Amino acid sequence: MSRFQVAPVALTSLFIVALSGCRDREIVSYRVKKEATHPPAATAAPEPGGAKLSSPDASSSMASTPVPTAQGDGLQWIAPPHWTSKPASAMRRATYVIPGGNGTNGELAVTAFPGNVGGNLANVNRWRGQIQLEPVGEQELAKLLNHLDAGSLHIDVVDIRADTGSDPQRIIGAIVPLDGSTWFFKFSGPDSLLTAEKPAIIEFLKTIRPAKS
């Protein structure tokens, strides 16, 4: 079996602009120029929101395998001041920790990939699988999706919750098409936490705009 050498990923021009302060919300802008990546052969498509690959061929070495991500101009947004920003990575455009009570936290993972990564049905069913829910079909998907306009952007939002546990896991996912790529904003955490945070999440999504050049 042939061996492949994977050249290091050159991540260029990733800028984070933050206005800090107790009374100010964080304004973040991400732009991504061309990346010199060499996509691996015969690998499964990445999961939106940074989830693990579900292909039986995926191995522990997959974490270090370059995966093509979206190129060109990106998005900017304004995050609530109580969300804590973590460093971005090769797979994620941004990560935020959303604090909750009793030592529990939620998370926002922001990712972007070329194309539509299988379309809304495939992406929503991936998220459903992450909280042990059965996949749905096109007719049921239409009932689950809510549409939100943020400036010139059209955002599809889904809110799903596991059906087990006293405080089941929940995902609020937003899908944002942009110039031939798709951005994913996945909020995950206990149901009680995301219920309390949902107004802030909706306001956050309304601030998303194409990054200014």
How large a portion of the residues is in β-strands, by DSSP E?
A: 25-35%
Average of per-residue pLDDT values? 76
Largest beta sheet: strand ordering: 3-4-5-9-8-7-6
Radius of gyration: 17 Å
CATH class descriptor? Alpha Beta
CATH level-3 fold name: Protein Transport Mog1p, Chain A
Helix percentage range: 10-25%
How would you sum up the major sheet? 7 strands, antiparallel
Write the element-wise H/E pattern from the N-terminal end onward. Answer: EEEEEHHEEEEHE
- Oligomeric state as shown: single chain
Which CATH architecture would you pick? 3-Layer(aba) Sandwich
CATH superfamily: Mog1/PsbP, alpha/beta/alpha sandwich
Number of helices: 3
Number of strands: 10
Q: How many structural domains can be distinguished in the coordinates?
A: 1
General shape? globular
Structural class by SSE content: alpha+beta
End-to-end gap: 46 Å
**Uncertain residue segments:** 1-23, 29-47, 49-67
Descriptive report:
By secondary structure, the protein is α+β, with helices and mostly antiparallel strands. It has one domain: Mog1/PsbP, alpha/beta/alpha sandwich (Protein Transport Mog1p, Chain A). It is built from three helices and ten strands. It has a seven-stranded antiparallel sheet with strand order 3-4-5-9-8-7-6. It has a three-stranded antiparallel sheet with strand order 1-2-10. A hairpin with a 2-residue loop joins β6 and β7. The chain is globular, with a radius of gyration of 17 Å. The relative contact order is 0.18. The N terminus is likely disordered.
